[in-house]
Amino acid sequence: MELQSIVVGGGCFWCLEAIYERLHGVETVESGYTNGHLKNPSYKEVCSGLTGHNEVIKINYNEQIISLAQLLDLFFIFHDPTTLNRQGNDVGTQYRSGIYFANPEQQDEAKNAFERAKELWPNPLVTEIVALDNFYKAEDYHQGYYTNNQQAGYCQFVINPKVNKLRKHYHSLLKSEEKAI
C-alpha cells in the first residue's frame, strides 16, 4: 500500500492534527512548517512571522480508504477559510489558510474543493492554493499535541469543540477506536 500525502494549513496545527489523526484511512499526521524561506525553522522563529512559513499538517493517507476530496472537504469545514492570516485568537501570516499541492492532480482537487466550499461560507474564501515548496517537521512536543495534552486549556476550549463536532457529524469517517468513544 502506497500512501499519499497532502499539506494543509488552517490556523494552529494542533487543531487540524486533532481532526485528521482520528480519520479512518489517515495513517499519520505530522505538524510542521511550509513554504517559508528559512531552512529548518523553529516554532519561535515561525511565530515571529518573519520566516514566511505557515503552520501546517502533512496528512499521510490511504486513498483506497479516504479520498483527497473528502480530506479537503473536511479541511474547509473545520477551520474558517474566510479570515486572512487568522483563526480565532491566533493571528499572523503563519496561521493563513492554505492547501499546498505536490502535483497537478492535487491542485485540481484543491480547486474543486475550494469551489464546493464557497457554498458553505457567506464571505469570500482566502485560502491560498500553491505548490508545496518545502516542509519541515515541527518539534516533537507539537506532534500529537491534543492527544497528549487534552487537559490543557487550549485543548479544552478550542480543540475539543472541533473534535466533538467531528464525532457527532462525521462518525462514519472515524477510526474504529474513535467510534467507540
Describe this structure in words.
- This protein is α+β, with helices and mostly antiparallel strands.
- The protein has one domain (4-179): Peptide methionine sulphoxide reductase MsrA (Peptide Methionine Sulfoxide Reductase, Chain A, 2-Layer Sandwich).
- Helix content is 34%, strand content 22%.
- The chain is built from seven helices and eight strands; from the N terminus they run βαβαβαβββαββααα.
- The protein has helices at residues 13-20, 43-47, 68-77, 104-117, 145-148, 153-169, 176-179, and strands spanning 4-10, 26-34, 54-61, 86-87, 90-91, 97-101, 128-131, 135-137.
- The strands form two sheets. The protein has a six-stranded mixed beta sheet with strand order 7-6-1-3-2-8, with helices on one face. A two-stranded antiparallel ribbon has the order 4-5.
- The longest helix has 17 residues, at 153-169.
